[in-house]
Design brief:
The protein is of the alpha+beta class and about 350 residues long. The chain contains seven helices and 13 strands. It is elongated and about 105 Å long. InterPro entries: DNA_bd_Ku70/Ku80, Ku70, Ku70_bridge/pillars_dom_sf, Ku_N, SPOC-like_C_dom_sf, vWFA_dom_sf.
Length: about 350
Amino acid sequence: MAEWGEYYQKEDDESGVFEMFIKGEDGEPSNFDMTMQCVRSVYTSKIISSDKALVALVFYGTEQSKNPRNSFKHVYVYHDLDSPGAKRLQDIDKLQGEKGAQLAEKTMGSGETTLGEALWCCSNLYSDIKLQLSHKRLMIFTCKDDPHGGDSAKDRHACTKAADLKETGVVIDLMHLTKPEGFDVSLFFCDIVSPPEDESELGLQTEPSRKLEDLQKRVRAKELKKRAQSRTAYKPLAIRLYRDTNEPVRTKTRYFHAHNEGTFLPNNMKRAQVYGKKQIKFDDPGLVLMGFKSMERLKLHHHIRPALFIYPEEEQISGRSSFVDVLHLFQFNPSVFVTDYFHLFES
């Protein structure tokens, strides 16, 4: 949302003073051109990174009024709250430069500044959207620190509408631009802008933006929604303590026979899987030698998978080297083959 009353001001009936269209130092663009470039960068980033984002552009302090139901004077909704596209980028490009100033003068003109009406209009734009919005942010681009010229009634009206927007979850940010006599945020906007959500977020900046890079940096910092990548578990897990000794309680499990109530030890219990109406017991993982058979008993359809390499390892099981040596000797007999089964995983 940008104020047009400070961009175009009538000094008398014959001459016009474009305060925001004055070029900056060292060839810097005017404040209005910087604003339009920032708006264009926001449109472009939303088109690329978030196609479901909704963006609107509202001018206040204009002579012409264009808003839903035209119920707010001096408020011109240049772009409704919708997904940005190529057509909107072309509209923003037309507002830049000297031709853009003439087009804006012809289209909107200059009128009375009423920030409260503009905030009310933005509130209606949010309420007209039937979709569930994850976050809502309102950026105010202005170089006028006292938009109402000391009118207390308009100031209170603007503060009331700003408070209503904050209650609905709208974050209001001030993107104030430089002016010759300086920008004092304590005059009015300190009560309008939302406080920072956390310590890492930039709050209200007292110094105005004098260069395009500074303004774009502030806009990018506010534009992107901050999300936590990880959280530290500060709350420890609950530990049960024995009330007499204040020692941690340890869980012990005992198994008893269903008929004679005898105690079962871990080595007395076996795990099984019911298969074919029978309980199939799971053995420990490993290689079990079943015997030797004649090569005539080995058929082609017995081949299930490629062969596995077996190597001895005395550190885990003693005698494995001798066992492998015996198997190796029997393998030299071409008339027999080894029959065994191999448990790979433990149940």
